[in-house]
Amino acid sequence: MELLLWGVLPYVSIALLIAGVCWRARFDRFGWTTHSSQVHESKLLRIGSPLFHFGMAFVVLGHVVGLLIPRSWTDAVGVGDHTYHLVAVSTGAVAGLAAAAGVGLLVWRRFTVPAVRRATLRGDRPMYTFLLGAMALGLAATILNSTGANGDYNYREGISIWFRSLFTFRPDHHLMGAAPLAFQLHVLFGFILFALIPYSRLVHMFSAPVRYLFRPYVVYRRRDPKLAGVREDRRGWERVR
Fold it and tell me: How far apart are CA 15 and CA 194, in angstroms?
């Protein structure tokens, strides 16, 4: 079971993510959108959306630092365990609470505002379920670990090493199997969420307005006030027969 969960499932999840994104880009370009419901309700959206997106940006950054940067690197620059965990817990808690509050408000808005509820897609419910579950479990794991409920467990010597071993295609699944249950559930929900991304509105996270930087200039011409209200002869395809 450890091998399946922590040695096979991550690769299956990433394969589904890549295949789904490629399929959407090839066959569903017009469906590649957030399916914004701002036209139905905007007051709650203006609060919840920035909280969620900015909070998640810092949460992802914290995961990248915590999982990809080895302990030896931070020790080499003089950042001790106490300082590292103090900064990680304080900033991670603020970012996590902001993201959780934002997505909670968005979910409450989606299922309490009638017009927004009618615009809910089939894939929204499982997406919100695993998104909220992953965030709640992440916060719970952080709190339990910082209060000593998990003993002296150090995820940088367990989960981080296991995660980096995935890139070498030799996953040390025993390290993840020895992690506390809250961390295991958090990681499990995270990989399931990765697999769901291409088939939900979360696919828009891979969109970037790169072409906007290279688009042609838009030329605006001032209209002659003397010609205001006067229109030239209609072009051929505009004439009424």
Answer: 10
